[in-house]
Amino acid sequence: MKNFLSLCIWLFIAPLAYSQDLIGAWKWMETGEEGEQVKGVVTFTKGYQVAAWFDAETGNFIRTNGGTWNLDGNTMTEIAEFNSEDPEKVGKEVSFEIEWNGTDKMRIVGMDTWAERVDNGEPGDLAGAWLISARKRNGDLQSINTLRPRKTMKILSGTRFQWVAYNVATKQFMGTGGGTYTTVDGKYTENIEFFSRDNSRVGASLEFNYAIDDGDWQHSGKNSRGEPLFEIWTQRD
Questions:
Q1: Could you say which of 7, 39, 64, 125 is the most buried, measured as most Cβ atoms within 10 Å of its Cβ?
Q2: Per-residue DSSP letter, 114
Q3: What is the pTM of this model?
């Protein structure tokens, strides 16, 4: 009887535990149309997710999509805010079942490839979904309305980052890039693995200063063109 009760309790709490365990980054490998090895990465933060596919050897960008997500038991429901391959999917809701192999492997039911956990949202200080809310131009700090349709978002797990520029009203995808990051002694360092606008940036490392002020992320240094920047990012609700 004791073992039966333990099993019932586990069956009740397991979906809740797995739902929480989705937070962080996951990766997988698949074969592309021309036989190339394609790396896929998906990052889940509270309420938002982003997935990207790129050539594992060259970093050549292939596609990305993302938006909101919710897990009810093993049923995943997503609503796309952007989709570089098929803009008509923006705003559409899609649901599918996922299955688990322990807590560190998952896949969509019916798919061959298992995604493996990269991290659980640690150790980086900036895990979450952020929208740019201010930027200095010609020395003046200019506010950016985070509620407008045109968005620049960064989603970070504990070790990975991806930024995306898009417009939810026009369904336009404008660009993305991503890779790994670290936060050490007030320094935020990006290591670029893919960049849709300029593949020559792949392999570059960029170091910035960062600080959290009243919940906002202050980001300063030089951009990928060597120009000074100061930005403020606000975490999404």
A1: 64
A2: P
A3: 0.89
